[in-house]
Amino acid sequence: MNPTQAWSAIGERQLVALAASLAADAREGGVIFLEGDLGAGKTTFARALLAAAGVGERIKSPTYSLIESYALDGWSAHHLDLYRIADAAELEWLGLADLLDPSTLLLVEWPERGVGALPAPDLRLHLRHAGDARDLEVTALSARGRAWLGRVAGSVMVQSDS
Prior knowledge:
The chain is of the alpha/beta class. The protein has a domain at 1-106: P-loop containing nucleotide triphosphate hydrolases (Rossmann fold), CATH 3.40.50. 26% of the residues lie in helices and 30% in strands. The protein is built from 5 helices and 7 strands. It has helices at residues 12-21, 23-26, 42-52, 96-99, 143-155, and strands at 4-10, 30-36, 67-72, 75-81, 104-109, 123-130, 133-140. A 7-stranded mixed β-sheet has the order 1-7-6-2-5-4-3. Strand 6 and strand 7 (133-140) form a beta hairpin. Helix 1 (12-21) crosses helix 3. The longest helix is centred in the last third of the chain and has 13 residues, at 143-155. Mean pLDDT is 86; it is low at 157-162.
C-alpha cells in the first residue's frame, strides 16, 4: 500500500505553504500528478511550487497552451494541463519524451487524460472542494515520493486561514 497523507478543509494559504514545502525537493526533478475538479486548486498548487522553487517569471496556466516550460539553474520544469486533450496520443506532438530527464520536474493537471503517455508519478495529489476550502490527499508512489511526503508531512502545520 502506498503511504498517504490527508489534510481537511485547508484554505489557499495552506495549499500554497504545502506546495512551497516541496520546492527544494522539486529541484531534483520528479513527476507530480495533480487531480481534482475544476477550480479545486491544481493550478494554484503548481504556481506556488514553481514560484517557491525559484521561477522568477510570470507563471502562466497551461490551459490553452497545454504546456508551460521553465528553464532554471541546473534544472527545468514543465507544467502540463491535459484538460483539453481527447486522447493520450495527442501528447506525442508536444515532444514530452524529449523534455524528460532526471533533473526535470513535471507537474501534470488532469493526468487521467494522458494515461499510457506519461511517466509514472512520484506523488499524486487529489484536491476536493470542501465548501470554501478544499480537502487534499497526497499519495507517494515511488521512493522519491515517499521521501517528499515524509518531509512535507513533517514540515507543514496546517493552520486556520483566519
